[in-house]
Structures are given as C-alpha cells and as structure tokens.
Design goal:
alpha+beta, 1 helix, 5-stranded mixed β-sheet, elongated, about 35% strand, about 15% helix
C-alpha cells in the first residue's frame, strides 16, 4: 500500500473523530414519539416543587415566547432539586397530545447552571 494513501486515510479518520456537536441530541420522551416544539437557550427560571404531580418544575421563566405553563424537566439532576433555586437553562420543549391533562410542558434540559 502506498504511504500517501495510508496518511490520507489517517488524516481523514482523525478529522472525522475530532468533530463535535455542541447541541446534544434529545434523550427524553423518545419512547412516546413526541416532537420537539421549541428550543430555548439561556432562559432564567426558578425550580419549584409545589403541586404538579409531585414533580419538580421550572417556573417564572424569563421572556420565552408563549409559554403559559411551567416546564417539567425529565432530566433534572439532583443538585438542582431544591425548591426556589434560581437557574439559567437551555433545552427542548416537547409537544403535548390533545388527550393529555398536563400541569407543565414536557421539557429536556441540555444545559443548566445556578443563576
């Protein structure tokens, strides 16, 4: 085999493996066949543990377009499960179905930090 071909293949493999995707792929609600309705970046809200089917929600959200209900994150990590905690977050809001009775919008966090 020609050494130039080997070098080209190695360069190609290194280039392909070094690519990254900063926007993580959706992981939640896939088994329910929900579609992503909106992507949010750097919103500010507050963690709440009152009422919504005994689950944590994000309330008091800063300037998102047309969100009338709290967000119900499927993947809220333990470090953020504290009532009243102010957070900055990004993620995917999923569709809801007509037959559902919901108290918060299905949501998947892609990034969260303390505010």
């Amino acid at each position: 085999m020609n050494i130039r071909i080997v070098i080209k293949i190695l360069v190609l493999l290194v280039t392909i493996n070094s690519c990254s995707n900063d926007d993580s792929l959706p992981n939640c609600f896939q088994e329910e066949n929900r579609k992503i309705e909106a992507r949010f970046t750097d919103l500010i809200g507050e963690i709440d543990n009152d009422g919504c089917q005994s689950n944590y929600t994000i309330i008091g959200i800063s300037t998102p377009p047309n969100i009338y209900l709290p967000l119900a994150p499927c993947n809220l990590s333990e470090e953020f499960k504290e009532d009243g905690l102010k957070v900055r977050f990004s993620g995917y809001m999923y569709e809801t179905f007509e037959t559902e009775d919901i108290c918060a919008m299905p949501f998947e966090i892609t990034k969260m930090e303390l505010e």
